[in-house]
Each structure stands twice: as structure tokens, then as C-alpha cells.
Amino acid sequence: MNTSTQPRIYLSVPHMSGREAPFVQQAFADNWLSSVGPNLDAFETEVAATLGGEVHTLAVASGTAALHLVLRDIGVGMGDRVAVSTLTFAGSVFPILYLGATPVFIDSESISGNISPELVREYLADAARRGQLPKALIAVHLYGQHCDVDAIAEACEGYGVVLVEDAAESLGATYRGRPTATTAPYSILSFNGNKIVTTTGGGMVVARDAAAIARMKKWANQSREAAVEYLHRELGYNYRMSNVLAGIGRGQLQVLADRVAARQRVASRYADALREVGMTMQGEAPWGTHSRWLSVMFLTEESALTPIELVGALDAENIEARPVWRPMHTQPLFADAPRVGGSVAEQLFRTGICLPSSSSLEDADQHRVIDAIRRALQPSTGESSGERLATAS
Ligand SMILES: *Cc1c(COP(=O)(O)O)cnc(C)c1O
């Protein structure tokens, strides 16, 4: 139960810069209040430029919608298989089900918690022998840390499996000097309110092939044909982003580097402050820079509290934290889905906790979080590190 009188500290909140409002006001002034308009075109161009300029982009209503369009463009349909990281958010997986396909969950490697290249190689070799190759493989960049994508791309290419990057959490991260969302034929981004930059809700398809973007753009607009009357040859969706929200995105994109730097500072403060209570920060893999969308720390198996208990102790002090994603292969919804391994992801779930990581998190608030964790893990010694908070007895 929450007994704190202090204001709530959230896991990850929107952080406006002041540069968004002029773009939004312009949309109102010009009456571009729909799913076409100059902010949309500019936001797509500006995201592509941020990613190095060699990709094509389509702004849509959510990251989940973006992934749905991508899987359809790859040709995923009824009865197909799609491989995906087991340690991820459901938004990485539901679009597979929208298309009537079956997810195959692949375990993590232990350096970054991302999909294991070694298991991908073993799985694809075995699937090829059995004639059950997946159409696509979705590699998630967990909490902003890029997966070891070169090794995965090579394995996928060898078997004709299309690689998709779920870069919803990793905008601003790099892989061997390349921006995230440019290391596969298709990628998706999310601009949900809790992500590094936001349009309040939104997503983007990123693709190397302009023709692919044109196809998906039509589907996202209810598959309207270029005809005066409403002519439809294909199934469509109402997935386009609003021109108003694209204006928010344009302002947010201008401060992306600051937002990433702020989240990295938050992570390094936690790493330094919580080492003494035996917690370790999710590692930064040698192959890339970590955007630190969320600060993820691990407790030892001998820790006084489990992550779920620690989340509860923090909630009692009006602090929002969350366990690491519950692996998809352990979800009741996916009880029958095929999987490859799973014990590494389960171990990360058993020991990992996501701490408040907003780029707007004030120093004093981060100290409140740190003190609360110290008190929860070391009830006898923790009180010296800060004032004891009022709690009901
Ligand atoms: C947020 C997220 C999504 C979904 O994005 P939405 O814009 O919320 O639909 C997909 N995958 C991952 C890994 C995410 O974190």
C-alpha cells in the first residue's frame, strides 16, 4: 500500500522541450488537423536524416502498427512462423498474431539480454532441416541496448529470413558506429509517451526500400487507390499519424541527443550509488552505445528482496518501478508457442528491475529513489543515507 505523502516519481514520463508548441500551433493556424500535412512530411524526412539519410520512413499511429505493416509487407500470413526475442514487450509480438502467424521465442545472450546470435544460428539451421524456417525474425534492442545485429543479419541472410529491428526503445543508440534502426531492411520506432522522445502516441516504419514504404503508406490509409471514388483493391488500416502529433515529434527530435544524454546520466548515477547494495546495471555491450531508455539493475539471487518485492517497497514510497519484461514464453497467452531456450531470459526476469529513468528526473528525486532502495535492501543500515520518510505503522 502506498503510504507516502511525497509526490509520485514515475518510471518514464514525457519531457517536452518547448520547441513542440510552434509546430503544433502552425498545424492549427493552417488547419492541417488530419492525417496529411507539412509536419508529417517534415517529421518523416527529419527522422530519416537523424538516422543518416539512407532510409525511408512512414509515420504511423503506434510502434505496434508499424510492426504490423512491416510483417505484412514481408508477406507474413496464416500459418507462417516469425522468430522474436522472448525478453520483450508484447508490442513486439502481437502483430505476428494479427496476421495469423505463430511466434517462435528465442532466448537472450547474457551480455546485453538481447536475442542470442548463437541460438539464432542453431535455431535457423534446425528449422531449415525440418522445413520450418520463419518468414521473418524480429530483433529487439532491449531497453535501448542494441542487439549484436551483424551476427544475426548474417544468419538470417543465409536462410532467406527477413530481419526486422524493433528499435522502439533504442532511438539514439548506435551499433558499431551506425545508428539504430538502419542495420536491417526494416525497422520500427515508437513515440509512445514513455519512450525517449514522444508524439504522445505514435510510431514509425523505417525501411531501406522506398517502394516498400509506398505500399505500407497505402495500407495505412485504408488502402485507398488513386481514384476519385473510394476504390479499394486491398485490405487496409487506419494507421496514419496525425499532422498535429507529428509537430510534437519534430520539436522532440531536436532535443533527442540531450534526452539520451540525460538518461545516460541517470543510469550512471544509479550504477554508482547502488553498487554498495550489490546491484549491478545492465551492461553496455562492446558493440554499441546504450540509449539507457530505462535504467535496468540486477539484484543478486541472494538479495533480501525479489524485484517484485522491491517494486512493492518503492510503491509504498510513491515511486514507480517495474520488473524486467516477463519473458513471452512464460506468458499464459503463449503457453503453446514454440521456443528456443529461455533460461537466460527467466534469470534476467527473476533478478532485474527497471528504475525511474525519465530524462526530466531531478537529482533530488533520484536521491529519493536511491535512499528508498538502500532502506529496502538494508533495513538496518539504510537510514543513515537519508532522512527517514514518514510511513504509516
Ligand atoms: C513500446 C514498444 C513497442 C510498441 O510501441 P507502441 O508505440 O507503444 O505501439 C514495441 N516494442 C517494444 C520493445 C516497445 O518497447
Kindly describe this structure.
With 393 residues, the chain is of the alpha/beta class. It folds into two domains: 20-253, Type I PLP-dependent aspartate aminotransferase-like (Major domain) (Aspartate Aminotransferase, domain 2); 256-392, Aspartate Aminotransferase, domain 1 (Alpha-Beta Complex). 35% of the residues lie in helices and 14% in strands. The protein contains twelve helices and 15 strands. An eight-stranded mixed sheet has the order 1-9-8-5-4-2-3-14, with helices on both faces. It is globular. Pyridoxal-5'-phosphate is lined by residues 62-64, 88-89, 91-92, 140, 166, 168-169, 190, 192, 203.
User: Quick one: CATH class of the largest domain?
Assistant: Alpha Beta
CATH-defined superfamily of the largest domain: Type I PLP-dependent aspartate aminotransferase-like (Major domain)
Instruction: Report the count of strand segments.
Output: 15
CATH architecture of the largest domain: 3-Layer(aba) Sandwich
Tell me the structural class. Answer: alpha/beta
**Tally of helical segments:** 12
N-to-C order of helices and strands: HHEHEHEHEHEEEEEHHHEEEHEEHEH
Strand content: 5-15%
Shape: globular
Question: Low-confidence parts, pLDDT < 50 over ≥5 residues?
Answer: 382-393
Q: Can you list the strand order of the major beta sheet?
A: 1-9-8-5-4-2-3-14
How many domains make up the 3D coordinates? 2
